[in-house]
Amino acid sequence: KNETLGGLLNATFGNAVEMIVSIQSLLLNLITVVKGSLLGSILSNLLLVLGMSFFFGGLGRRNKEQEFLETGPMTNMSMLLLACAAFAVPTVFKSSVGSEFSSSVQLDDTVLSISRVASIFLLLSYIGFLFFQLYTHLQVFESADDNQAQATMSIWSSMLILLASTVLVAVNSEYLVGSIEGVVSECNVSASFIGVILLPIIGNACEHVTSVRMAIMDKPVIA
């Protein structure tokens, strides 16, 4: 349970930074940046982090395959694919039946309602996933040496450090979001590029490095 909880805390506090940046971007009406950041985060986890974990995790095991329980990773991948599908539903709806609406205002209101329902569905799915991961199917996410690891810090001190780091990053992210428009105008860089590429990689850098490091240490449950 220690490795599972550790991986969950790492993912939660790691994504808290991105969530704070997204909220601040919404307050500044940077909708393109927010949409790109969410999409880029999913793609980076599906492709970049997964590929790097496989690659570096296998470097030190040329004559040995790295093994892990497949049910846990498959569940995580299913959650990511579910998020991608939730993003696509409003766009598909607008493209397929948008011409049947008499006014654009009515169409936009309907798409907005669908987006809100999808967001609530994703939130409930995440809560169900936590219950599945920590209570009903905990053994699926446990590795054989989970109980052998010795903690060097207490859970409360670890959470306190993570919380303090998140608060500091939240303060700095305000300056980051405030400088996006200036970078777009002066450096001739599109807001979509910043949202899809730069913010997901930079915002989740600690989480990505931790995932690769755990893969190298042969702890794919945390990765």
TrEMBL record:
The keyword Lipid biosynthesis does not apply. One of its GO terms (biological process) is intracellular calcium ion homeostasis. The chain crosses the membrane at residues 12-32, 38-59, 71-93, 113-132, 153-171, 191-210. Residues 3-134, 158-223 form the Sodium/calcium exchanger membrane region domain. One of its GO terms (cellular component) is vacuolar membrane. The keyword Kinase does not apply. It is a multi-pass membrane protein. Keywords: Ion transport, Membrane, Transmembrane, Transmembrane helix, Transport. Its main location: membrane. It is found in: Endomembrane system. It holds the Pfam family Na_Ca_ex. It comes from the Eukaryota. One of its GO terms (molecular function) is calcium:proton antiporter activity. This is Sodium/calcium exchanger membrane region domain-containing protein. It comes from Perkinsus olseni (Perkinsus atlanticus). The lineage of its organism: Eukaryota, Sar, Alveolata, Perkinsozoa, Perkinsea.
